[in-house]
Amino acid sequence: MQKGILIDGVGMTYAGLGRQHVALSGIDLRVEPGEFISIIGPSGCGKTTLMNIVAGFLEPTQGKVIIDDREIHGPGPDRGVVFQQYAVFPWMTVRENVEFGLTLRANAKSAAERKQIADHFINLVGLKDFAGSLPKELSGGMKQRVAIARAYAVNPEVLLMDEPFGALDAQTRQFMQESLLTILEQEKKTVIFITHGVEEATFLSTRVVIMATGPGRIREVMPIPLPYPRHAAIKTSAEFTRVRAEIETIVREEFLKQRTGIVAESAQGIGVGQ
Amino acid sequence: MAGTAIQAKVQAQPSEKKWRGKLERVGYFIASFAILLGVWEGARALRLVNPQIFPSVGAVLKCSVGMIRDGSLQYHMYASFLRVLCGFSLGIVMAIVCGFLIGWFRVVRMLMDPAINFFRALPPIALIPLMIILFGIGEASKIIVLTYASFFPALVVIYQALVGLDPLFVRAAKTLGATNFEIFRKIVLPQLLPAIITAARVSLGVCWATLVAAELIAAQRGIGAMMVDAQNFFQMPPLVLGILLIGIISLMMDGIVRAIERRVTAWQDKLS
User: Fold this and answer.
1) Is the dihedral of CA B68, B73, B78, B81 positive or negative?
2) Could you read off the pLDDT of B48-63 as tens digits, one per residue?
3) ipTM over 0.90
4) For a designed S-S bond to B91, which of A103, A241, B98, B151 qualifies (C-beta 3.0 to 4.6 A apart)?
5) C-alpha closest to that of B246 among B43, B81, B85, B88
């Protein structure tokens, strides 16, 4: 049995009226257990589509995704998802949110076990004093902590995070990145993390996957040769700066390529108009 | 320790403010009705209405005490309440069930939408003559009209809320392993509860208005029937009492529903 995630020749083609849109093409990626993979690239490169395929919200039109030897179809508790929008259930308290997955038939636990598991993960994300609070009383960062604890509670193999800190301010974001690494140190998971931030990707990941557009594909997979545990101080080290700059260059190149593509297209549009 | 002390202080202030606000609201509530009674008595004193015909506040009070003593007021109110309760409950339950079918299945929605808009535009009172011919002047025709009256407004509120639900929470529940039934019961229903309460509020108002109209047309019992009797025998105090009762009961029912609403929707982020 092969542990981890295997993304095998995944492609996604949307059939439109008369023409087809290829969102993803020939994605091959092996993610080893315990790895932290960030996916970065210009908007429109299909990184969210790829995430939705791995999460099971979308069926790929080509290829397959295999997790621990099982081909996946549809979402399931083996893959926890943390969304960019606050997906914490607003009508439940923090504790009820974290316990929610354990009340479902798929991973049913007794009330005593539920409480114990919830306590553990609420503590892990540092929300002990807010267990009885409603989400409307929490800040954005705290809501994402609840989402992380809720995902952890059902003990998934994989954690999929779709720009989870994208809506947070810079300070909170930095703090959440460090918290996430601390949480992962205590409870190891395989993570796929989508982001726009090169610094964030470099800081968190074992490898960074840089995607290109038209059609969405993998341009480069960049290993980050920095040891864990990592702390904020590492961001000023020479090695970090070097790797970060390297990734930045490729991301920028892809961004510019996409932009000139758009400019060329709209220029053509004007030409036709005349 | 210091933290909790500060927290307690912060919480004490709004609770005092809240208490004062409540007192203020009660004060205005009483004042509002005092003005109404003042206008009533003033209109009689200034002969804006004929004081021989239009009864005084005292006469209406005396009449209500007398009717409570001989039990006729309770008798009429009981009949009206029972009708509203039956019609309203039937209507709202049907609206919840149909609202889900319409909100959940696109085909049902497309098929039903024009018909719903047709019936929604049709005032329930317009059905009363037809219902009397079909079902007689007994309870059946009234309850059918009331069911109809509460069904459509509730239906529209519920299915529009269902269509407007954010799919994000459903997706989140799916990633945790929820089945369709679990999603319905634990994700969709709690989010719809505020809309269901709103629907109940709207329906109750329509229901009560329709009831009196139905009783005015044909009934031996009920507040509307009581008013028709009073009109036939030219008894002004019970007639005015009937009008007041309808207003007071509507106000009370709305207050109860609103109290439930506040409890059920405490989790929502209010704009105010």
Assistant:
1) negative
2) 888 888 899 999 999 9
3) no
4) B151
5) B81
